[in-house]
Amino acid sequence: RKADPLRIMISGAPASGKGTQCELITKKYGLVHIAAGDLLRAEIAAGSENGKKAKEYMDIGKLVPDEIVVTMVKERLNGPDSQEKGWLLDGYPRSSSQAIALKEFGFQPDLFILLEVPEEILVERVVGRRLDPITGKIYHLKYSPPETEEIATRLTQRFDDTEEKVKLRLQTHHQNVEAVLSMYKDITVKVNGSGSKQEVFAQIDGALTQLEQKQGKLGTVV
Ligand code: AP5
């Protein structure tokens, strides 16, 4: 057990690469990946009441109400694995009310990563995105094609990954992003998310290594 595991938030517009970077971050740093969107899609797949309600909002690119999302995320953050290994919170908080609730529950991140990607790139990333339902891995028809024919034939597309729906999701993002950023200004690192996924990861990896070194040093001071 690490004495002081990392607590990281990652934010950015729809399809800015949050999920892709989280795959690379968890692989190297062993943090527990908690993605609000994935938790909501799991509720939909389970056919729960919360899932049915959430889908109505996700279909129109709006934020799912706090009464559904806040408890769901809090429970995962409180899980023994997150407490032990540290956490990587993806796509949460997305509003000042969510950020305030987190603070009240005592969840304070060490670093807030903001992925910055020009809007014209985002639409292309969304419409080309595919998911492997077996491994959960994220692909892109052009930028991250599946490794084998077998994987290619089983890939699925998200119901909100159309050009029309991503425009609505972008609008919601623009309405809320400033309020969230203002709460984490002091610990924000802005990352240029328009390069290749390895180029983007190199920037994040640099910031996380630095953070670990800083915390390691602090940890030795008794
Ligand atoms: P969510 O699932 O979080 O969707 P999102 O924020 O729109 O983000 P995405 O998952 O679309 O993109 P990503 O940034 O993870 O990109 P990815 O790595 O896949 O939320 C969905 C909905 O749930 C919301 O609209 C809302 O209704 C609801 N919701 C979620 N959180 C909520 C909250 N906190 N409160 C209330 N409601 C909430 O990459 C995209 C594509 O690009 C992939 O194909 C990938 O292969 C490719 N790609 C990635 N990086 C690169 C690169 N560097 N170069 C080339 N291609 C790349």
TrEMBL record:
Enzyme Commission numbers on file: 2.7.4.3
Coiled coil start-end: none
Keywords for this protein: Kinase, Nucleotide-binding, Transferase
Catalytic class of the enzyme: transferase
Catalytic activity: AMP + ATP = 2 ADP
Family, per entry: Belongs to the adenylate kinase family.
Self-association state and partner proteins as the record states: Monomer.
Protein name: adenylate kinase
Residues of the full protein shown: 74 to 295 of 296
